[in-house]
Amino acid sequence: MLRVQQTLGAYTAHDSATLSAALDGFPLDVLGEACNARVAALHAITDGGVQAYASIEGAPGRVRTDQATFLVLAYACSLNHGRWFVKNEARRLMAAASGLTALERVALLALLQVEVQPMDAAVRELEGIAAAAKRAPLSRAQSERGRRLQGMVRCFAQHVVATPPGDVTPAQWQAFHAVDFEHASRLVASRQVTLHAGLAYVQDWQLQFVLRQTYEARLTALVRQCRVRLDEISRTNTGYHAPQFATLLSIMHDVQFRVCPVVAAELGPLDCSARSLPLAIARFAPLCIVKLAVKLRVQRHLVDRERVTLRLWLRAVRVRLDVAVEFWQALVPEKEKVRGAIAQAYAKQYACVGCAKIRAQDLCPLQGSPKSISAWCAETMPSAARDIEDLVASTQCPSERCAGVFALRHGDGMRSGPRNPANYFARAAEAGLQ
Fold first, then answer.
1. Global model pTM greater than 0.70
2. Are 376 and 393 in contact (CB under 8 A)?
3. Cα separation of 169 and 162, whole Å?
4. How far apart are CA 187 and CA 158, in angstroms?
5. 155 partner at 20 to 30 Å CA-CA among 46, 186, 372, 427?
6. How far apart are CA 310 and CA 434, in angstroms?
7. How far is 293 from 295, CA to CA, in rounded Å?
8. Which residues contact 39 (CB under 8 A, 6 or more apart)?
């Protein structure tokens, strides 16, 4: 059974000790590459995709590598991408288990702590109990088991195949399995199975849906456990001085960007000071944020919608609160107190203002007439003014213009426009770190 589990890579929260042991002492110089390969394989998986994520059974170190990368991805995705991890790891298992027989799927479900009772096995066990009762009195456990199996057999004959128990064919007994309805709730909800007395009677081909639902539930519990455990580990390594822990954090950052390059990973705050934050904005931020930062520095004041946009962006890209306050306070009149307003924006944890709202509030520097855009670029970034003029002339869509500016500054890493300024910053930072 353990060999089946390791071959398929079906791990749950109960396997935490085994997974941690696999990671302990794992060569960190190859762990990052192995994790990236797993992410790429998970991205390639489609429902029913037989070609996705092929493991070589018996390859040296394959099982340990599989366990180590599984755990690192679980930890990394527990922060921002838990749903992605659960969905794609479940797809990976279904692709790996596509060639299993019904009995092998029953055995795999048993590893996931789900009891599935094949109906033909129930009939044989009931006959054995009846034969034993003729030889000697049954124990209490045997009697209770016999009554349960008898009720299961009668219910199946009456409600599933609508035939007296003696007339049910061997093929019908072999084609069905009884499972607690909670493990087949999706099939029950879609009325694809018969439900009676708390048991759902599923056919061989429906076991794959039970397996997927069960594994997704187990993975969800694992992700929650990893989030709690990672918080505990971080509290004991607040200085990030341990080389191994720092390397693992770096790998997890890379994993998160490869999974979904959106808002910067929440493994730690953005490592910058009030003095270096303007440099990070100039290098990685989109032009809408650059425009607000320039206006704040020059005019020493922003209107309400501009203040909200900039504050929520600072929170979204994980600038520390004290750094954001110091940065802002240095740009406004000394008598103006900014800590309360910025702290409130951080505490409420609102999402970063999206590009559609930024355009609706007329805060996007890439919308409007080409003449006004060219004038602003000539004043703000004269070295790139000519390239941006050509870009503005090539399309009327602000989102496409923003993607074009990204390509000019960081290479062709954004096929479509960003969803929000934090998304742009994360992708730009990723491109700058490669």
1. no
2. no
3. 12
4. 20
5. 186
6. 27
7. 5
8. 73, 255, 258, 259
